[in-house]
Amino acid sequence: MATRYGPEVGFFQNAWNNPPAPFNPLFDPGATARRAKVTSSMEADGFYKSHTREECKAEWHRRYNAALSDEKATHKSE
Questions:
Q1: Which of 2, 24, 59, 62 has its CA 20 to 30 A from that of 37?
Q2: What is the pTM of this model?
Q3: How confident is the model at residue 2 (pLDDT cuts 50, 70, 90)?
Q4: Could you give the CA distance from residue 55 to residue 53 in angstroms, rounded to a whole number?
């Protein structure tokens, strides 16, 4: 059984597994804004009020992927 030393070890392990942007090639600087945009659009549409969690999850992913592909298309055309 492993010994738990406290939150510092957990934080270090998390930082080691998910390094900051300069060291992480998978880091997406636009992800936070994209996530907020998708969530606010679903709130504005009232989607959360009239659908189940599973439907909301599927729609959220669909909208997120659409926003991501729109950003990629915009960057390719520039």
A1: 24
A2: 0.69
A3: low
A4: 5
For residues 17, 18, 21 and 22, what is the CA-based torsion angle, rounded to 10 degrees? -10
Look at the chain and count its residues.
Answer: 78
Rounded Cα distance, 31 and 16, in Å? 20
Tell me the C-alpha distance between 39 and 67, whole Å: 12
- Residue type at position 49: K
- The secondary structure of 8-34, three-state, reads HHHHHHHHHHCCCHHHCCCCCCCHHHH
Q: Is residue 38 within 8 Å of 63, Cβ to Cβ?
A: yes
- CA–CA separation, 7 and 61 (whole Å): 32
| Pairwise CA distance, residues 8 & 22, whole Å | 23
